[in-house]
Amino acid sequence: MSKPHYGGNLVDGAQLLSLFGDVATELCVRADGDEGLFRAYDSVEFLAPVFSGDFIEARGEIVSWGRTSLKMRFTAHKVIAPLSGPGHAPSAAQLLGEPVLCCRASGTCVVPTALRRSPLAGERIGRPGPCVITAAIVGAETTRAQTPHLPLTAEELGEEAARCVAAGASVIHLHVRDEAGNASQDAERFRAAIRAIRARCAPIIQTSTGGAVGMSIDERCGPLTLTGADAPDMATLNVGTINFGDDIFVNKRLDTQQVAARIAKAGLVPEVELYDLGHLDIVRELLDRGLLTLPLHTQFVLGVRGALSASRRNLELLVERLADFPGSSWGVAGVGRHQLPMAELAAALGGNVRVGLEDNIYLEKGVLAQGSAPLVARAVELCQAAGRPVATLEQARALLTAKVPPG
Ligand code: KMH
Ligand code: ZN
Prior knowledge:
By secondary structure, this protein is an alpha/beta fold. The chain contains ten helices and 18 strands.
C-alpha cells in the first residue's frame, strides 16, 4: 500500500476494492477467457486498518457459476507491516506471523453471452461440467448400532440405491455384508446386490476392492470375478497404506499393482482412492508400469483419522498436483462431519462429490440421515447453489466409463 489518504498514514479502503477488482478480473479470465465486468458487491466489511507501507495479499474464489454471471468471495490480509519507531531504519519491515484479515467481500461479475469467445485449439477455459454424485450406501465399517438406516441385505441395497439414483446419484459405490451384517467381499453377495440394484435402476456400479481392514487381497478382489450381466462397471483401487482410525489399512505397493492388473483384466474402469498426497506418486509408478492409463478417475478420501485431513488447503494442493495427470477427473469423499463441507467445496471447485452412510451418518449435527438418499439430495442442493449441473446417468457414463481413445 503506497498511498496514504487520511491522517496517521491510513490508506483509503477503496484501494482494497481495487485489488479485489484485479482478482475478480483474473477469475473471469480463468473462467471464461474474458475480463468480465464487476456488477455489484453484496457485502464489504473492513475489519482492520491498513497503513501506507503495509503489504496486502488479496485472494478470491468463484463460489457459484451462473449462466452469464460468476459469484465471488474475496479476502485481503495484511502479511507484512513496516517496523517504525526509534532504532528502526525506514526500510525495516516485519513478516506478520499471523496475517491480519483487513477486508472481506463478496460480489458478482458478469460475462455477457454476446462477448463470450470460443476456446482456442487445445485451450481449456470455461465452467466445470456436470458434477457426478456418488452414493456410498453401506461401506464396511458403519453399523446398525450407529444408524438404523443402514441397508444390509441385497434387497435393502437395491432399494437404497434406487432412492439415491432418484435423488441425483449416478454412481453407487458398493460394499456388501454377510447375514450377520459383517463386511464381506463374497462374489455371490455382490452378484445378488448388483442384480437387486439393476432390477430397480441403472447407475454405474462401482464395487469396492478395499473391503474391510484385515482382509486378504484375494478376498478383497471377490467382486472382480463377476462376469457378463452381473459384472460391475467400475472398481476402486486403493494405492497406499494408511492409518485408519485405530487400525491400519494395508495396501502394499506390489499388492496394489496386482489389484490394478486384475481390474484391467476384468475390463472395469478403476477409480483411484487417494488418502494422502504421496499416493499420487504411487499412481505415477502404476502409470509408468502400464497398470493404469490416463485419464484417471480419482477420489480424494479426506478426513480419515491418521491420513490426510479434510481441509481446503489439502484439497487445493491435491487438485493442483492432479494437473500432472492430464484430463483426469477428481471427486471428494469427506469423512464424518467433513462430508457436506467437502462436497460444497468440490462442487465449487469443479470436482465430483461422494456422500453416503459409508463415510458419514449425519445430515446435520446430531441429526441422523435417514439413509444415503437425503445426503445425495443435500449434495444436489450444494451443486445447484454452486451453479453446477448434476450429471445425469448418461452424462456420468460418458464421463467415467466411456473408452477414451489413446493420445
Ligand atoms: N473400508 C475401507 C478400509 C474402498 O471401498 O475401496 C476401505 C474402503 C475403500 O472402503
Ligand atoms: Zn468403500
